[in-house]
From TrEMBL:
Protein name: Phytoene desaturase
Organism encoding this protein: Micromonospora pisi
Biochemical pathway: Carotenoid biosynthesis
Keyword Heme: no
Gene Ontology biological process terms, A to Z: carotenoid biosynthetic process
Keywords: Carotenoid biosynthesis, Oxidoreductase
Listed Pfam families: Amino_oxidase
PANTHER family assigned to the protein according to its UniProt record, in alphabetical order: PHYTOENE DESATURASE
Domain of life: Bacteria
Length: 498
């Protein structure tokens, strides 16, 4: 039995702690915030009409089997803790008109044949045939990734070479091709290309630079379904905390880890703010951003290359809305020029073009049809647009600049109104969350939603010194609830095998 310290009580840290405690290890978990959950945040607002509740992080759960396995492996059943509701549509896509045509709406669903038929009904038979051809390709990518990558350690790019003998996998994944290139080679309708491009943002990446292998992301969502957790996805953090406590994990919130002790070339423990003596440990699992680990907790300049380079943050509005909107649970309102949005958000340091708020952004709106999260006769809206990270460089924005956040909030509401969803005269309140706010609340550098690494290949789960492991969205296999939970499974297995 090892003494293990987990740094950070996000989903990755909680899931790792539960798995390790279930196998007999002595686990202590330190969290800098007063509550657990990390980016799986929650917020409530009391009004005379009643209380509004918001998920301020993920709003969609995919790959439910990953969570079923987590609870079973730690001695429980998923449905004893979580009430999952399947969504149809998973996402309602609102596309602008092209060539003088009318705007169109496409609802995604978890039955591949039914979704293809919906595409045919909205965009025509050629688009349906294109999507079916793309879907076969995405399935090949998904199965190769699931078999060899997503549940296995990838400590370096060389580890991916084990796929080289499977020529069919290489033909499907096509290393070097972008997700944008994959879309253009399979999909003629610009709206389907736009739909595919959006999935690059799930990993914090620009679709023009993201690898084609990210086609596995829409495949996972559309093949296995999207789910809502009744009462809000923040309840997942409560369930994982309950498992940890039942298994004997010591959880200390409001406790900041300031360093990892690794004198002599291996981990010995961690240092806490305000403590006079370090906490001893045989193993340390860091559920904080890899940039924070290698810049602050265990300085390793050689590990910083590529981190905080090109990864998305988000600008958020929390709205209390009177009346019913008729929107789906998840809605995406696309702009006419998607590339202009990415040009704005990422900037171009090479040409000296700074990042800036996108003037006509894609707008994501989540409206849960759940009486538990809003007063009768009202709706709780979570509104998200892609945004540059908090900072003062050419590829970031200082969101703390006076007046900027309020002005951009006005702009987003105007954009929604222009796209046919005007709630400006039905607002009880609005609250703003910028990338600077997320950085402060979760300790995520720059407020990067999916970790500072971005893209497909993330920092390894095994650290550079024996006894150190990394878990969470900034590490392999990536961001999003199922990937973070799989990273916990990988780390727990490696510790168990040591």
């Amino acid at each position: 039995m090892s003494r293990i310290v987990v740094v950070g009580a996000g989903v990755g840290g909680l899931a790792t702690a539960a798995r390790l405690a279930a196998t007999g290890h002595e686990v202590t978990l330190f969290e800098r915030a007063e509550t657990v959950g990390g980016k799986l945040g929650r917020h409530s607002r009391d009004t005379p009409a009643g209380t509004f509740h918001f998920d301020t992080g993920p709003s969609l759960l995919t790959l439910p089997q990953v969570f079923t396995d987590l609870f079973l492996d730690t001695g429980a059943k998923l449905d004893e803790y979580l009430d999952l509701v399947p969504l149809d549509p998973i996402v309602r896509h609102h596309f602008p008109g092209y060539g003088g045509g009318a705007a169109t709406v496409l609802d995604s669903c978890a039955e591949p044949g039914a979704f293809a038929a919906r595409i045919g009904a909205v965009f025509g038979p050629e688009a349906e045939a294109d999507w079916e051809r793309f879907w076969r390709r995405a399935g090949r990518i998904w199965h190769a990734a699931w078999r060899d990558i997503l549940r296995s350690s990838v400590d370096s790019p060389l580890d991916l070479a084990r796929l080289a003998w499977r020529l069919g996998d290489l033909a499907a994944i096509r290393p070097g091709q972008s997700l944008r290139g994959l879309g253009r080679s399979h999909l003629r309708d610009p709206r389907l290309r736009m739909l595919l491009d959006r999935y690059a943002t799930y990993t914090g990446a620009d679709p023009r630079r993201a690898p084609a292998a990210l086609a596995a992301v829409p495949y996972a969502e559309l093949a296995f379904g999207g789910w809502y957790l009744r009462g809000g996805l923040g309840g997942l953090a409560d369930a994982l905390l309950s498992r940890c406590l039942d298994l004997g994990v010591v959880v200390q919130t409001g406790t900041t880890v300031t360093g990892i002790n690794a004198a002599g070339g291996r981990v010995h423990g961690v240092r806490l703010a305000g403590a006079t003596a370090p906490v001893p440990a045989d193993v340390v699992v860091a559920n904080v951003d890899a940039l924070t680990v290698y810049r602050d907790l265990l300085p390793r300049p050689d590990r910083l290359a590529g981190l905080a380079d090109r990864s998305l943050a988000g600008f958020v509005l929390l709205l209390g809305v009177r009346g019913a909107s008729g929107l789906a649970h998840h809605n995406v309102f696309f702009p006419t020029d998607y590339d202009a949005e990415f040009d704005a958000v990422f900037g171009d340091a090479g040409r000296g073009v700074p990042a800036r708020p996108a003037a006509d952004p894609t707008v994501f709106v989540t409206v849960a049809d759940d009486p538990a999260v809003r007063p009768a006769g009202h709706e709780s809206w979570f509104v998200l647009v892609n945004a540059a990270r908090q900072g003062r460089s050419l590829t970031s924005i200082d969101w703390r600049r006076p007046g900027l956040a309020e002005a951009y909030a006005d702009r987003i509401l105007d954009v929604l109104a222009a796209r046919g969803v005007d709630v400006r005269d039905r607002l009880l309140f609005r609250e703003i969350r910028t990338p600077a706010d997320l950085a402060t609340a979760t300790g995520t550098p720059g407020g990067a939603i999916y970790g500072t690494a971005g893209g497909m290949l993330r920092p390894a789960n095994r650290g550079p010194v024996p006894g150190l492991f990394l878990v969470g969205g900034s590490t392999h296999p990536g961001g999003g609830l199922p990937m973070v939970t799989l990273s916990a499974q990988i780390v727990a297995a490696r510790i168990g095998a040591a």
